[in-house]
Specification:
Elements: H1 3-18, H2 43-47, H3 60-65, E1 80-86, E2 92-98, H4 100-104, E3 108-112, E4 136-137, E5 143-149, H5 152-159, E6 163-168, H6 175-178, E7 193-201, H7 204-210, E8 213-220, E9 224-225, E10 233-238, E11 244-248, H8 253-264, E12 271-275, H9 291-301, E13 305-308, H10 311-317, E14 320-321, E15 324-332, E16 338-350, H11 356-366, E17 376-384, H12 398-416, H13 420-427, H14 446-456, H15 459-462
Parallel strand pairs: 1-13, 11-12, 16-17
Antiparallel strand pairs: 1-5, 2-4, 2-6, 3-5, 7-17, 8-15, 9-14, 10-11, 10-13, 15-16
Helix pairs in contact: 11-12
């Protein structure tokens, strides 16, 4: 085709496009829609008490409009991105770390290793967790180095250039095996059992002698990841006056501020944390993770540094719900009334303590269930293993033991031929009952709740 013809056709097409009605054209970027700042509130809502009224979520409107700003939506001038290298090995001694190849990459602004952390330990109960492992790694999710670069992808690429030489050591994964004297020690120089709790009430051995029947079962629960929609995320900015400001999804600001101050070895009044909207916590964001790392990378580069966990980071490095192994032994009379119960709890704390001691205590107190038991003995142990550490998660040990004692009650009811609801009614707490620790209970509604629940879903008809 002749070039002049091509030009003529193109000009005709352009002229035709220019003739299109302007009202039919859509802008490349739609005009921003404005929304009323103040929402309408029915007059009746302002004149009645809050109890019994519908309450609006203060963050619901922004969520619904897609205007909520999380850490990943935030940007500061000159901001760079950090990523963390994980050990990938359950237990080993670090022989050497070489970050030179990563530092040579264009766009890499800084690297960080455990030797550069001023005080390389933290934890809500015991300071047994390193910010970045320096001499030893205790589980596959341990941080061993960090990189700050101009983009996230470049930071991830730089991690691959870091060379680490390990001396593998024998790990232990089973908490029952870890309790044995012959088991490898997770942390050298100490027992794998780092917390114990005991509750004793009455004479449990005499109770078993008086029992009509005795039942024994072992129950276990698994490790559970929180899986928040927003992973752990923070931005750190270390200014010229030696103060660090962190925007963070951290759930416990006061505790976190103290830990950050300690690990950075600076006064607490030089640490400022600005809490951001949290895209899911459930207990998993109750302690610091990358905040000290980001702060030191910001100090080294003079820039704000953003760090966001990958989903893999969440699974192998953040805290999880504690797995439990639970042994139950219960003696009952002919009517299914509990006359004695003995419980042994083993809590798998993973590589570090975190909130295990608190969780163990709550599980120990709740392990007998909401039942009147005159003769009770409970012993509980928190144990180190070379696995992802466990920590705070909704319930703090209650879901694990609830699964065990209620399953146990069902087994007993089935064997005795007693209705599962009835055996609970015969044993349930009532007004003035004493808890396993001797607390006299008030406003007890266990039986009322059971009766109402059974009535609501037709237990009598369903259980025939």
């Amino acid at each position: 085709m002749d070039d002049n013809v091509k030009v003529a056709e193109r000009e005709a097409t352009l002229e035709e496009m220019r003739g299109v009605d302007d009202n039919l054209r859509l802008p490349a970027v739609p005009d921003q829609v404005s929304y009323p700042i103040v929402t309408d509130t029915p007059e009746a809502r302002t004149q009645t008490p809050a109890v019994g009224q519908r309450a609006s979520r203060p963050d619901g409107r922004l969520h619904g409009l897609g205007q909520t700003k999380y850490i990943d939506d935030m940007y500061f001038p000159g901001m760079i991105h950090a990523k963390i290298k994980r050990s990938g090995i359950s237990k080993a001694r670090i022989k050497s770390i070489d970050v030179s190849e990563a530092e040579k990459m264009p766009g890499v602004m800084a690297t960080l290793t455990g030797k550069e952390i001023p005080v390389n330990s933290f934890g809500p109960s015991y300071q047994d967790q390193p910010v970045i492992a320096d001499d030893m790694v205790f589980h596959a999710g341990d941080a061993v180095a960090a990189v700050a670069a101009v983009t996230e992808q470049l930071a991830l690429d730089a991690l691959e250039k870091i060379k680490i030489e390990y001396e593998p050591l024998d790990p232990v994964y089973d908490p029952i095996e870890a309790m044995k004297e012959s088991a490898p020690q997770v942390h050298e120089g100490g027992s794998n059992v780092y917390a114990t709790k005991v509750i004793q009430k009455g004479d449990v051995e005499q109770g078993f002698k008086d029992a009509y029947r005795i039942y024994e079962n072992t129950f276990s629960t698994q490790m559970v990841e929180h899986v928040p929609m927003e992973p752990h995320a923070s931005i750190a900015d270390w200014d010229g006056n030696g103060r660090v400001t962190l925007h963070s999804s951290l759930g416990r600001i006061t505790l976190g501020r103290a830990d950050i101050s300690r690990t950075l070895d600076i006064p607490i009044n030089r640490v400022r944390i600005i809490a951001t909207v949290v895209g899911g916590n459930f207990g998993g964001k109750n302690e610091i993770t990358t905040e000290p790392i980001l702060a030191l990378l910001s100090k080294k580069t003079g820039r704000p540094v953003k760090g966001i966990y990958t989903r893999e980071d969440e699974f192998i490095s953040s805290t999880t719900r504690h797995p439990f192994v639970m042994d139950y032994k219960t003696g009952v009379d002919k009517d299914g009334k509990i006359v004695a119960r003995k419980v042994r709890l083993v809590c798998d704390g993973g590589a570090y303590c975190s909130w295990s001691e608190t969780t163990l205590g709550k599980a120990c107190i709740l392990s007998a269930g909401p039942y009147n038991i005159d003769n009770l003995y409970v012993e509980a142990f928190a144990v180190y293993t070379n696995k992802t550490m466990t920590g705070a998660m909704r319930g703090f040990g209650a879901p694990q033991v609830c699964f065990a004692y209620e399953s146990h009650m069902d087994d007993i009811a089935l064997d005795l031929g007693i209705d599962p609801l009835e055996i609970r009614m015969r044993n349930a707490f009532h007004e003035g009952s004493a808890s396993p620790t001797g607390q006299v209970l008030q406003s007890v509604v266990v039986k009322d709740s059971l009766e109402k629940a059974a009535d609501r879903f037709g237990w009598e008809e369903w259980s025939k």
